[in-house]
Design a protein that fits this description.
Helix content is about 30%, strand content about 25%. It is α/β, with parallel strands linked by helices. Strands 6-5-4-7-8-3-9-10-11-12 form a 10-stranded mixed β-sheet, with helices on both faces. Helix 4 (about 105-120) packs parallel to helix 6 (about 140-155).
Length: about 375
């Protein structure tokens, strides 16, 4: 079966190369989220592949929509066909070939879209969005239109994506809607630490052999378009404070050997945080630390500061590190080596570092199983992920 790329490598990989031809996809969220960014990436990818792409837009004027597509870089817009369902709403003229004159006339909507299908034979189709129609038509008319769109798409071998914010549908109605599509992608926007993340989840489809994914963070980069990434947690501290051991114990899977970074002063691993695969990486707190910290701290969701509780010089270095956290990224101080003689307690460290109560200090000994749990839970609570 031929696959149609989403234009997002990691998503295509989870889908086995993309969506199959003639498939239907529901882009669903319970609150406003960046579904449209995903849809735009899908269309831009098709246009660049010299495929005819049809975008049915009930919310944006064609000029505004096209300006959004241009953010993704240079492309030939001749392959981008827009069904203009907005100009008539604001009583403005339209230069588009396909124009819905009355959004309260379902026959008009269906007729314009069907004509566009028959004349353009699109390979990719976006409906933006279903909630616009749900707010204006009875359920039976919506479902009939929905089935009509899917029939047209299958007849023309098109991949059909629909955007939908479920404002008012009951669960049984939504379940019925979901059962009619081949793929369901759920979207969510949440904050992790100081970073606002856009997330997508591919829901399980046993018939198509696709396992449900975890939440996949994504963002928009100028020219590149939509890219996925892993949230990051920094582990820092002085040499021999226990950073490497901390990462190894914390992470179920080390990634330091996968890309040749071992021996470069960087240790890395991965953990699941609220069903989101999160990278954990180490940064040495040496002389060049301040500039390195400022570089990385803007891109991380949380920080573990590892201290050797037996070394007063570590306490002073820890004070410098906390002072360098100008972005106020959620931070937990890990007072390590509590099993050794002369180790300072959490309270003694707090006093010496003059830490506010908002920064937890957790006593740890990495030689004891389970000692990491309090530190991890403290950071997750600060990040809003617990």
């Amino acid at each position: 079966m031929n696959r149609v790329s989403t234009g997002i490598g990691s998503i295509d990989e989870k889908l086995g190369g993309g969506f199959p031809e003639a498939s239907s996809v529901l882009l669903l969220s319970q609150t406003p989220s960046e579904k449209r960014m995903f849809a735009e990436q899908f269309i831009v990818t098709g246009v660049r592949n010299d495929e005819t792409c049809l975008y049915v837009d009930f919310y944006r004027s064609p000029s505004f929509a096209r300006s959004h597509f241009r953010r993704y870089g240079i492309m030939d817009e001749e392959n981008l066909v827009i069904v203009d369902a907005v100009s008539a709403q604001v009583m403005a003229p339209s230069e588009e070939k396909y124009v819905v004159k009355d959004v309260l006339d379902m026959d008009n909507i269906r007729g314009v879209i069907q004509k566009a299908f028959e004349e353009e034979k699109p390979e990719r189709v976006i409906l933006d969005s279903l909630d616009f129609l749900v707010d204006r038509y009875p359920r039976e008319i919506i479902l009939d239109f929905w089935h009509h769109m899917m029939t047209l798409s299958k007849e023309h071998n098109s991949v059909f994506l629909t955007l939908f914010i479920n404002w008012i549908m009951e669960k049984r109605e939504l379940d019925a809607l979901e059962r009619t599509v081949d793929y369901l992608l759920e979207f969510r926007t949440k904050r992790m630490g100081k970073i606002l993340m856009n997330l997508v989840k591919i829901h399980e489809d046993k018939e198509l052999g696709i396992d449900e994914s975890g939440w996949i963070p994504f963002t928009f980069e100028s020219e590149s378009g939509v890219v996925t990434y892993s949230p990051r947690i920094m582990v820092t501290g002085s040499a021999n404070s226990g950073k490497t051991e901390f990462i190894q114990l914390l992470c179920s899977r080390s990634v330091e050997d996968e890309d040749g970074l071992k021996g470069e002063g960087v240790d890395r691993g991965k953990i699941d945080v609220s069903s989101v695969e999160t990278e954990v990486f180490g940064v040495r707190g040496d002389e060049s630390f301040a500039s390195t910290f400022r570089l990385f701290s803007r891109e991380v969701s949380g920080i573990f500061l590892i201290l050797d509780s037996t070394k007063p010089e570590d306490i002073e270095k820890g004070r410098e590190i906390v002072a360098s956290n100008l972005e106020e990224v959620p931070l937990v101080v890990v007072a390590n080596k509590q099993d050794l003689k002369g180790a300072l307690t959490a309270e003694e460290i707090r006093k010496r570092m003059e830490l506010p109560d908002t920064i937890p200090v957790v006593e740890t000994s990495l030689t004891r199983d389970g000692d990491l749990c309090p530190a991890l839970h403290s950071l997750l609570r600060l990040m809003g992920a617990a």
